[in-house]
Design a protein that fits this description.
The protein is of the alpha/beta class. The protein has two domains: 3-231 and 465-493, Rossmann fold; 251-450, Rossmann fold, CATH 3.40.50. Helix content is 32%, strand content 28%. The strands form six sheets. The protein has a six-stranded parallel β-sheet, sandwiched between helices. Strands 15-13-16-18-26-25 form a six-stranded mixed β-sheet. Strands 19, 20, 21, 22, 23 and 24 form a six-stranded mixed β-sheet that branches. Strand 25 (418-420) and strand 26 form a beta hairpin. Helix 1 (16-29) runs parallel beside helix 2 (57-66), helix 1 (16-29) crosses helix 15 (461-479) and helix 6 runs parallel beside helix 8. The two termini are 13 Å apart.
């Protein structure tokens, strides 16, 4: 069975996903067979594996860093919030239902067999499993029935690295307070602490590190410097969703920040094109006059369409379209652009709702979730034949009027999406991972506003991600006491 190491954090956003991704790359570069594992993930950014199963986007990236294909066993439990108090529960890649928080908390023990089966299966095939916790192990109100932090560490006998983020301040209090709220048995699992995102002269930090070690009784195993590396974000805490100034960019792209925004990682590649600037907006007054408006994916299409109307965004978007602005809807955004949304089975909210009326389509919601990877060719005028890859992940079926042209054609020739005058709709997540697609879009938008293409292009997205994984691994390997980590993994494994 594989050895393991677990990364827990003092809070969400402490850098757990970053460290796990880097460790996966470090171990893989040493020749180990390594796989990531997160027993329970709560995220609206998800990914579809080759066999049509759904996992957290972060685990897909970690698998890629490890040099292996994403596998549903890497994230057996996925929660996708669909309200402030409830989530859709996905077990082993398929939907089990919608549950209020209290009901899910009570049922968590029943999921332990699924978690252990997934972990043990991965462990039988690999040398090292790098495990990611969730939130904080010091959420003492959730200690009973814990299946993702110390509860999981106990189940699989994992040594734990505890990470804190110094960037927002208070990292010593984060780490000390977390340790003090752990039980004595849990504290014995912590082999060391890690401080993430440090800026400045580390020698000025050392007196604090010595005192922290004295107070907690565990060593500080590393201080990781702040660095600009790109990793697929897991949730709405992402800094990408903050307002951004796109002045000076040839192309201005405005993305509507929906309340239940999902898979916003779709648009990260656009940021990398030298001529494209993207910004997230939530008010009509913030829209201005962009070159492209994107309605992104959402976990709650009908509720978010109601929100768009309350914000006055629908009228503003329609006005921009009439003035020549291109509108793109992806997944839930695509559904919104149609004539009507129907939900007779109460998948989202029972009843019918008029869509924005910009595409000749109708969507009928059903409990069955469409999950599949897609390859094909773009069918947009002037962009025909550009390779397209991505994945579909949605509840419901959308039918198109014969008057609509397809957005693309799948490899078998069947049409996908719908296009009319300056309105595009598609179900494809990951669409912009195709560098030719992004480059062609930038050129089209530049020409539409009378600007000559600069000739600057975006490089291949897969190659770019590989560079980022190596950059993360170099940073972490040079910052952590890796020899100590190897020894502790051996010690726990030899118990």
């Amino acid at each position: 069975m594989a050895k393991c190491i677990m990364v827990q954090g003092t809070m969400s956003g402490a850098g757990k996903s970053f460290l796990v991704t880097a460790l996966c790359r470090i171990f893989a570069r040493k020749g180990y067979r390594v796989a990531p594992f997160k027993s329970q993930n709560m995220a609206l950014n998800s990914y579809i594996t080759a066999d049509g199963l759904e996992i957290g986007r972060a685990q897909a990236a970690q698998a890629e860093a490890a040099g292996i294909a994403p596998d549903v066993r890497m994230n057996p439990i996925l929660l996708k919030p669909n309200s402030d108090t409830g989530s859709q529960l996905i077990v082993n890649g398929t939907v089990r239902g919608n549950y209020p928080a209290r009901e899910y908390f009570a049922m968590k023990p029943s999921l332990v067999p699924d978690i252990l089966a997934a972990y043990q299966s991965l462990a039988a095939e690999n040398d090292i499993i790098v495990i990611e916790g969730a939130g904080s192990p010091a959420e003492i109100n959730l200690r009973d029935n814990d299946i993702v932090n110390m509860g999981l560490a106990e189940l699989v006998d994992a040594p734990v690295l505890l990470a804190g983020d110094i960037d927002p301040g208070g990292v010593f209090a984060q780490l000390y307070g977390t340790m003090m709220l752990l039980s004595e048995q849990e504290r014995r699992r912590v082999i060391g602490t890690v401080i993430n995102r440090f800026r400045g002269d580390v020698s000025l930090l050392r007196p604090g590190l010595a005192q922290l070690e004295s107070l907690t009784g565990v060593p500080v195993l590393g201080v990781v410097p702040y660095a600009r590396v790109e990793l697929d974000d897991e949730d709405s805490l992402s800094s990408r969703l903050r307002p951004t100034d796109t002045a000076g960019c040839g192309v201005d792209v405005a993305i509507i920040r929906l309340p239940h925004l999902s898979n916003f990682t779709d648009f990260a590649p656009l940021e990398r094109h030298p001529d494209i600037g993207i910004r997230y907006v939530s008010k009509s007054s913030q829209l201005g006059f962009p070159d492209l408006v994107i309605l992104p994916g959402t976990k709650s299409t009908m509720a978010d369409l109601q929100w768009i109307r309350k914000q006055g965004l629908e009228d503003t978007i329609r006005s921009l379209w009439k003035q020549g602005v291109l509108i793109l809807g992806v997944c839930g955004g695509y559904q919104m652009l149609g004539q009507r949304l129907s939900d007779s089975e109460g998948v989202e909210q029972r009843g019918d709702m008029p869509g924005m009326g910009l595409l000749p389509t109708e969507t009928v919601f059903s409990p069955r979730k469409t999950r599949m990877q897609v390859e094909g060719m773009c069918a947009l005028s002037g962009m025909e034949g550009i390779p397209v890859t991505g994945y579909e992940l949605h509840m419901g079926t959308t039918t198109c009027s014969p008057s609509a042209h397809p957005f693309c054609r799948r490899r078998d020739g069947t049409p996908e999406g719908a296009v009319t005058d300056r309105v595009w709709g598609t179900y494809l997540h990951g669409l912009f991972d195709s560098a030719p697609m992004v480059n062609a879009l930038a050129e089209r938008l530049l020409l539409a506003k009378g600007l000559l293409p600069t000739g600057q292009v975006m490089e291949d997205q897969f190659a770019y991600r590989q560079q980022q994984y190596d950059k993360m691994a170099d940073l972490v390997e040079n910052s952590l006491d890796m020899e100590r980590i190897y020894r502790e993994m051996e010690r726990f494994h030899g118990k």
